[in-house]
Amino acid sequence: MTEQTSTPSTPRRIVVAGGGPAAHRFADAMHARGLEGWQVTVLTEEAHLPYDRVALSKALTDSTVDLTLGTASMWDHESLTLQTGERVVKIDTAGKSVETAAGNTYEYDELVVATGSDAARLPLPGAERVHVYRTLEDVWAINKSIAELTEKLGRKVNAVTIGGGLLGLESAAGTEQLGAIPVVINGAPWLMNTQLDEGAGQALGRLIEAKGFEVHGGVFPSEIQADDDGQVTGVLMADGRIIPADIVIVAIGVKPRDELFRAAEGEESLFDLGPRGGVVINDFCATQVPGIWAIGEVANFEGMCLGLVAPANTMAEIVADRLHGGEATFPGFDTATKLKLSGVDVASFGDAFAKTEHALEIVYADPARGVYQKIVTTDDAKTLLGGIFVGDAAPYTSLRPLLGRELPAEPGAYLTAAGGGEAPETELPDDATLCSCNNVTAGTIRDAINGCGACDGNAPVQELGELKGCTRAGTQCGSCVPMLKKLLETELTKSGVEVSKALCEHIQLSRQELFDAIRVLELTSFEEIMAKYGTGAGCDICKPTIANILASQNSNYVLDAGRGTLQDTNDRALANMQKDGTYSVVPRIAGGEITPKKLGVIAAVAEKYNLYTKITGGQRIDMFGARLEQLPEIWKELVDAGFESGQAYGKSLRTVKSCVGSTWCRFGVQDSVAMAIQLELRYRGLRSPHKLKMGVSGCARECAEARGKDVGVIATADGWNLYVGGNGGATPAHAQLLAKDLDDETLIKYIDRYFMYYIRTADRLQRTARWQEELDGGIKHVEDVVVKDTLGIAEDLEAAMAKHVDTYIDEWADTLKDPERLRRFRSFVNAPDQKDDSITFVPDERGQMRPATAEEKALAARQPVLVGASIPMRPSAPDLLDENEV
User: In what helix (H) or strand (E) does residue 601 lie, and over which residues does it extend?
Assistant: First the structure.
């Protein structure tokens, strides 16, 4: 390759064809190494900034999620340009330029091709009616189609995914979260056959089917059927069966987008292509043509093109290193895979199929539980070659960095599902790769923690977030974060640095320690607590935390005795503040059950006060647009009609979602509505470290989506199955099975224990899912405490819950009884009758009102006639204080 020089006045031009994760990583690597003397232009055909394709499943279920990689400010560098909507269609190797579909030409000194891959498609009749799973537009289209079909058909949509690999299962899981019935068609005899052997694949299939997925394996589709209007109706299989379908998604893999390297008809290509596509590269990612490099899925190395993030990142770093005079080489593909799907852990790495000569396979299989664990070693059972885990992938985190190394313990010790306890403690050598996505070694992590040059300024790193930002470890797929955190704490302890669990700068105790101290000493006021355990006047961390702890230990009115000043804005107003400074009103509708008469009350209140109404995902009605001073008036009408606070504003139980259950549904096996109402009335008002949500489904069809809740209850013919630790949100998690076939009394007893144990031991603002993940032993520890009572605290936990149930009061009913409490609900303390008319409502396009935009408010201020239905409201001031608290 011809050596070229560059100077700031004559920079070398690098053109990157493609704008996916590999292209982003290359640009980031060049930026990190310094762009002086370079001009990097990235051409992407998509309209978006480069985004994380690994997380596409998040965009499938939430079309508003932002998957942008890195920080957008990176593209502000004068030597780094991103051109969206520019698809490269031709390389002129002689003229050293590329041409785009828009007719633009970009000259280069170095060309990096990162065009990635396309979703593979099936050559079937009716294939034009299917969706694929590859880009943001693809998953947005699936999301929209399922929503439209659900409304049109008036029932759950049959969503068929063709493909039982990683992408296929992600797609199917996403359709389930969107409320569809997930169906998977897999041509291979078992799921994930590329990563899993038959035993593991069958275990995965059993687990998936037990969670409501319909799986058809070992047979291929032959036609996508549709009605006269073109609406998909089913998939005709090769064996003659017809599988009902309303939407079909094909996720059978990818094919390299190597068209830039293919010669025109009648010409000879200058590039070598692999037999199954992709341009052939050498061990430093160069093609046969000098000055042209290939990275990511379009690059074929030793006969393989793989759609995995780790090798793409490595290739990008290698090219950046080479362009800066380095000698980095590509070590080959890391095929490790980890997937958490619908609460099912799956992991595969290394020589998972034991193809190495004389390899040993140490296997534990429990078909009844759907658990399969396999470790592959050399014939002396010492050196780790690979492994597969299904149903319980806990050992993967500690084993993955030891690939190719001698195990510190007997292989069988890592088969945790066999009942041997946790995997042995592992001290990773410095050169062991801890984060495979970003090729970060344990030594690099240690250097960062100990201040040995891994980060700018050589300052020691003592926080997990800072460590991730400094080293990039744990910033992509996230599977290495538990090991990263463990290594951080270990190294800090070795250095004599105490790992701080302080609540904040004013209180050195952890939340759990503070909770226990307040409980044992029966402290009842913020002043008492700060005098004994704190310093200063407190802050916005410790104040609401203490208020929450006090509220969870007794049911006194949360705003009395000076506690109002400790609370967050929403708790002080007993309502959720909205973007325009108004509030929402959410009455409790236990289990989603409501009489027509009560529906009429809500309708009358909403019309009287001109409130926007919305049915929430938790099966209740939210009314938006109430002024602070209107809240007591609105709640008086609701309380008089038999409603109580839904506590949508508090860190407490929100809702217990339920399906119709056996009372009406022909599939129901238990009365889910009655159980949901019983649970909601039992745990209403229960203050906790974070909000709590529950769900009760009357059969295994799981219409209440109970496994996406902190506590989920699913009916069986023999009782109830109890799931714990689920949540939606930005980091969704499926709840894990805690106990099976419980009667009503035992079910409630276990939930009492679970909630109280969580409330006593979780960190501030920690959801149950994250709390369980960080407990030593995870769900097994929860089972030991809640079901087996190994700590001997079950009776105490039950008594604490009984005290809550016996002393529960409705906060709004209590507020309305006391004139002093009502005084805080005024827009202006010194002018109780004055209303703030600085906010204006306008009609929306669906027949309700909404807050006016800045432009609409400006227009209203200039004109004598107000826009739409103008209602005066208070601004979004944070301090809602009564006169006693000023």
Answer: helix 596-608
